[in-house]
Specification:
Length: about 450
């Protein structure tokens, strides 16, 4: 092996390591190049699979004059109408049609998100692909004998593959200070919302229906005047008639929508879910790069193909550690009082996941002091998580085992009581097929 090739390979690995190491600004690397080719790759997500069925005539989308293809899309993708949340800030590419009197509706299931705007030209869709992260589509809202979703790339990834998503194709939930017409007042800032965001900073530009006691938030709000915005930013404000809203009819005409609600529990869930999806995508992309660089270095230095250097191990450990923290809700913003949704979303959501012999599920809600009763993400069952490289997944399992067995002294997990850890461990052992073997191997 020539020295020039060794130094060239080492420099490439060094550069990539700095480019993709997670940090406050998020990962930055080219997902359009080797080994990913995001824009050229063929997706295998649920929308892509539905598209194939539509093209083959194996599935049919029914069109109606009120919603176009929306109801049919939700039915075929098994997305509940109760998941509806309503955003009236002009923060979508269909912003000209979005207004506080005509909010954009969002619907979601575990691996797909659907957007609909009154009078819009398209139904928006994004799906989570195990090898690509978020993949974006539009469906023309004109009747067609054989409608097809069109994949969208550059226009969507300008925002949806940026520092806001950790540098990978992902999803964003934003909270803004909306003007009376829904335009975000960006000079006052905005928040990318996930399960760590304090409630008082959430839901700016969103309608919120449900009960939350005296907890303050930015939902159901229109900002009039700079003084008001400054007071809101400081948290020194009175909720007034924006609090504990269970009926949105006084704010806009709800009749065009599939549900009259913008459910509070659905909002909490989608904020966790988008964060977890992005974290899984980051682990996938960064893990692929780490293993590719390891193979390059092993070849360049004449090492066995399965050689694992200390630096590679540290890199993979760091990737897995970041994901474990998201899966176990580290730094989750607490609920100061119990909350309750306004729709049937919570009841429907808990029915969907696997349960252990005691009837416990990772989808069981707490809604008193935190979102879930057993704080480990249900997305551990997802195709995206299953699509992680074996190396990364095994380290994730090992780190989960350490935390849940109380052998990890990291204070980041102090919110997990001994009872929490025991319950989560038992649920995972009963419902994740390949986890027991990973924990047994780690114990040897």
């Amino acid at each position: 092996m020539k020295l020039g090739k060794i130094f060239s390979s080492a420099a490439a690995c060094w550069t990539l390591w700095f480019a993709v190491t997670p940090g406050p600004a998020g990962a930055q690397f080219s997902f359009e190049q080797e080994p990913f080719h995001y824009n050229k790759a063929t997706p295998t997500d649920r929308v892509a699979r539905l598209n194939a069925r539509l093209a083959a005539g194996e599935a049919k989308l029914d069109f109606d004059e009120k919603h176009g293809y929306l109801a049919a899309v939700l039915k075929l993708l098994d997305v509940p109408a109760s998941s509806q949340t309503l955003v009236y800030s002009k923060t979508s590419f269909q912003q000209k049609r979005i207004h506080p009197r005509a909010p954009r509706a969002l619907y979601f299931a575990d691996d797909v998100y659907i957007g609909w705007v009154q009078g819009g030209d398209v139904v928006e869709a994004s799906a989570v692909d195990p090898q690509l992260g978020a993949v974006f589509y539009t469906l023309d809202q004109r009747p067609s004998e054989r409608p097809q979703f069109a994949r969208q790339t550059y226009d969507c990834t300008q925002c949806h593959a940026s520092a806001l998503t950790g540098g990978v194709p992902g999803h964003i939930v934003r909270s803004v200070y909306p003007a009376p017409d829904g335009t975000p007042i960006l000079k006052h800032g905005s928040f990318v919302v996930d399960h760590t965001t304090p409630i008082r900073k959430r839901w700016g530009g969103w309608y919120v229906s449900g009960e939350h006691g005296s907890q303050k938030h930015l939902g159901n709000l229109l900002v009039r005047g700079e003084d008001n915005a400054e007071r809101l930013a400081s948290g020194d404000f009175d909720m007034g008639d924006r609090a504990n809203v269970t009926d949105l009819r006084s704010r806009f005409d709800v009749s065009p929508y599939l549900s009259p609600h913008s459910d509070l529990v659905a909002l909490l869930v989608i904020e966790h879910q988008t964060m977890a999806h992005n974290a899984i995508a980051q682990a996938y992309y960064q893990g692929r790069l780490a293993l590719r660089d390891e193979a390059v270095m092993n070849e360049a230095l004449g090492r066995p193909a399965d050689y694992r250097s200390d630096s590679s191990q540290r890199r993979l450990d760091n990737i897995a550690a970041q994901l474990v923290k998201v899966l176990l809700f580290v730094d989750e913003a607490p609920l100061a009082e119990p909350i309750r949704g306004a729709s049937s979303f919570a009841e429907e959501f808990v029915k969907a996941g696997p349960r252990d012999a005691s009837g416990r599920s990772l989808r069981d809600f707490d809604l008193k002091t935190r979102l879930f009763r057993y704080p480990c993400s249900y997305l551990i069952y997802s195709d995206a998580f299953a699509g992680l490289s074996r190396d990364v997944k095994q380290i994730v399992y090992r780190k989960l085992g350490d935390v849940l067995a109380d052998t990890n002294a990291d204070p980041a997990y102090k919110q997990l009581s001994a009872e929490d850890r025991k319950a989560i461990r038992e649920i995972l052992l009963a419902t994740v097929d390949d986890l027991r073997a990973a924990w047994e191997a780690a114990a040897k």
